């Protein structure tokens, strides 16, 4: 059911979102974040059959990554419309068997179908790095996660320690005392500038590590009003780009998923569920320059 009658502009934006996330989910079938967005986008434009089909894909994606509670929740949604769907009933049986084998009982409280009660989704679907930085450094806004990113890139043997040490110092100097509409420097951009292969290898490694989805931001028609829902010190200062909004979910692109302090600040700044995506650093910088009409920074 549509929440309200969509304007032509809103409908066009949602159709664009659908096209973008259809491509993403074709190449990344277990990307449940993108499947959630695609499912809701279909609902928004009244494409019920596609929405139900995406629910099935979403249940399978949850199952494949071991998120059994969320898989059961999605199965419940499907069974409300197709009570005897054989593949869904089979999936529920498989989940129950696996949980019992692991010594867990399936909870029944709060579920109409005697399954598992829905879990909170506010921030629950972020990538695997959500809990990496709850130490002292994550408490300080000046910690941008560059050291963690540098260590990761060295461990992946993409760069030497000497290369990343020099780059970290350069980026720290450039990002010191940012004010107004100053655009921050990206460690990944400094290391990979003029080397497309290095960017691709770095992003591939980060996607594998974080389970974030990748968004080709350079091809996305970003609504400036959505992009500027965050304050300048988080967009320009942290290189975050809110690029789409579906219902109560806002999609934000970043190029350093290790910036836990920045991501926490984003969540505190928005009364929305935030889903995170990785994008090329040059695409993020170009998008911000266009949004804020800034001169290119050499």
Describe the structure.
The protein has 298 residues and is α/β, with parallel strands linked by helices. The chain folds into two domains: 8-101, Serine Threonine Protein Phosphatase 5, Tetratricopeptide repeat (Alpha Horseshoe); 137-292, no CATH class. The protein is 52% helix and 7% strand. The protein has 13 helices and four strands. Strands 1-4-3-2 form a four-stranded mixed β-sheet. β3 (249-254), α12 and β4 form a beta-alpha-beta unit. α1 runs antiparallel to α2 and α6 packs antiparallel against α7 (161-175). The longest helix has 20 residues, at 8-27. The model is unreliable at 104-141 (pLDDT under 50).
Task: Label this structure with key terms.
13 helices; alpha/beta; four-stranded mixed sheet; 298 residues; Serine Threonine Protein Phosphatase 5, Tetratricopeptide repeat
């Amino acid at each position: 059911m549509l929440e309200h009658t969509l304007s032509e502009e809103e409908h066009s934006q949602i159709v664009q979102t659908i096209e973008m996330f259809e491509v993403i989910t074709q190449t990344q079938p277990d990307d449940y974040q993108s499947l959630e967005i695609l499912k809701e986008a279909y609902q928004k434009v009244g494409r019920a059959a596609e929405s139900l089909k995406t629910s099935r894909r979403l249940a399978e994606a949850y199952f494949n990554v071991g998120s059994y509670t969320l898989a059961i929740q999605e199965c419940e949604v499907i069974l409300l419309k197709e009570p005897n769907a054989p593949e869904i009933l089979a999936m529920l049986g498989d989940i129950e068997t696996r949980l019992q084998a692991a010594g867990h009982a399936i909870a029944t409280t709060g579920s109409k179908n005697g399954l598992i009660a829905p879990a909170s989704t506010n921030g629950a679907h972020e990538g695997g790095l959500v809990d990496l930085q709850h130490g002292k450094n994550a408490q300080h806004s000046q910690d941008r996660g560059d050291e963690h990113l540098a260590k990761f890139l060295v461990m992946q043997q993409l760069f030497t320690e000497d290369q990343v040490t020099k780059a970290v110092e350069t980026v720290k100097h450039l990002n010191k005392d940012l004010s107004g509409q100053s655009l921050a420097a990206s460690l990944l951009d400094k290391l990979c500038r003029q080397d497309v292969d290095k960017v691709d290898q770095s992003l591939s490694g980060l996607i594998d590590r974080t389970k974030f989805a990748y968004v080709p931001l350079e091809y996305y028609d970003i609504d400036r009003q959505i992009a500027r829902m965050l304050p300048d010190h988080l967009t320009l200062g942290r290189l975050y780009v809110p690029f789409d909004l579906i219902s109560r979910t806002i999609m934000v692109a970043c190029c350093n998923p290790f910036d836990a302090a920045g991501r926490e600040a984003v969540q505190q700044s928005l009364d929305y569920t935030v889903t995170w995506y990785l994008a090329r650093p040059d695409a993020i910088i170009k998008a911000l320059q266009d949004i804020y009409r800034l001169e290119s920074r050499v």
